[in-house]
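Need a sequence for this fold. Nothing fancy.
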């Protein structure tokens, strides 16, 4: 299980970038929105107070930092921590202005829009909608980090095998690796023997030589056996 804690950095790249951008948007909107007549009162830029610290800056840091962790982490546990941090920041963007009335830290101001549609858009862009979108992408990252892919499990098994010497070719009881990049050379007979056993293109062994035929007796000229005679009877 330890080997599966490593993840590719690209696993949370998209969610991490989007969370980082959402954190920057949420943290800067109340301060720079008056430049574009889109934001919250007072109608002045870079106004700081305790309410904006608790309801704007704190969740923006949580979402942005969580997105940065998700974007750059190569450890599964650390990436999950970053995703949860972004979830909390997004949730606070969505419900913070409602819950904050319990301890009365103040308000971040009223929307600057001169009609209801624009005021709703400013409220969604600065708090409620922003928080929901941040929670969505953070939850998406959590789902991706919680699943161990087949390729990751295979790579983890290979790393564990190299660690205990079962597949690295250098452990006790295993055959050393004599591949083309190992820097060593096998004995010639062993190499050819392995090739002939396993390679489908190896030529078959040559057939055994034929057995010699028994020699036939050829009589010398003048020494002919007369048909019908036996023993020492010869006709010369």
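Here you go.
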């Amino acid at each position: 299980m330890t080997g599966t804690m490593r993840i590719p950095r690209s696993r949370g790249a998209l969610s991490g970038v989007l969370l980082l951008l959402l954190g920057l948007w949420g943290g800067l909107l109340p301060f720079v929105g008056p430049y574009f007549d889109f934001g919250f009162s007072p109608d002045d830029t870079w106004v700081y107070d305790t309410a904006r610290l608790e309801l704007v800056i704190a969740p923006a840091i949580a979402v942005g930092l969580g997105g940065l962790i998700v974007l750059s982490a190569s450890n599964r546990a650390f990436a999950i921590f970053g995703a949860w941090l972004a979830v909390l920041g997004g949730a606070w963007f969505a419900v913070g202005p409602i819950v904050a009335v319990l301890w009365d830290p103040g308000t971040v101001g009223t929307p600057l829009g001169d009609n209801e549609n624009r005021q709703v858009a400013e409220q969604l862009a600065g708090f409620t909608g922003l928080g929901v979108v941040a929670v969505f992408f953070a939850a998406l990252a959590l789902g991706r980090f919680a699943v161990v892919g087949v390729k990751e499990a295979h790579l983890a098994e290979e790393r564990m095998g190299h660690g205990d010497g079962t597949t690295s070719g250098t452990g006790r009881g295993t055959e050393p690796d004599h591949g083309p990049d190992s820097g060593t050379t096998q004995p010639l007979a062993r190499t050819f023997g392995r090739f002939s056993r396993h390679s489908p293109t190896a030529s078959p062994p040559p057939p055994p030589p034929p057995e010699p035929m028994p020699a036939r007796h050829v009589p010398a000229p003048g020494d002919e056996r007369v048909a019908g005679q036996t023993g020492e009877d010869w006709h010369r």
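For context: The longest helix spans residues 76-99.
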